[in-house]
Amino acid sequence: MTTEDKADHHRLDKWLWHARFFKTRSLATAAINGGKVHLNAERVKPAHRVRIGDRINLSLQGIVGEFAVPQIL
């Protein structure tokens, strides 16, 4: 994997933590494993790569939101 490849994507759990949806990566991982997070309408693992333009469906405390990944943090 080149430096350019690393610059255009992150792990899903890490991205959710950096975007401040979850206070820790552990909480982000638990939410992903619990089925509260979907990437492009599919259930994925915490290590799945997030790319610009991906759609994230997130359910937090009963509120459902859909977000587009504008850029990698």
Description:
This protein is α+β, with helices and mostly antiparallel strands and 73 residues long. The protein is 29% helix and 29% strand. It contains three helices and five strands. It has helices at residues 3-7, 12-18, 25-33; strands at 9-11, 37-39, 49-51, 55-60, 63-68. The strands form two sheets. Strands 2-4-5 form a three-stranded antiparallel sheet. Strands 1-3 form a two-stranded antiparallel ribbon. The protein is globular and about 30 Å long. The two termini are 19 Å apart.
Quaternary structure type: single chain
Order of strands in the sheet with most strands: 2-4-5
| Alpha carbon gap, first and last residue | 19 Å
Tell me the major beta sheet.
3 strands, antiparallel
The share of residues in helices is 25-40%
How many runs of DSSP E, i.e. beta strands? 5
- What is the tally of helical segments? 3
Helix and strand arrangement:
Layout: H1 3-7, E1 9-11, H2 12-18, H3 25-33, E2 37-39, E3 49-51, E4 55-60, E5 63-68
Antiparallel strand pairs: 1-3, 2-4, 4-5
Helix pairs in contact: 2-3
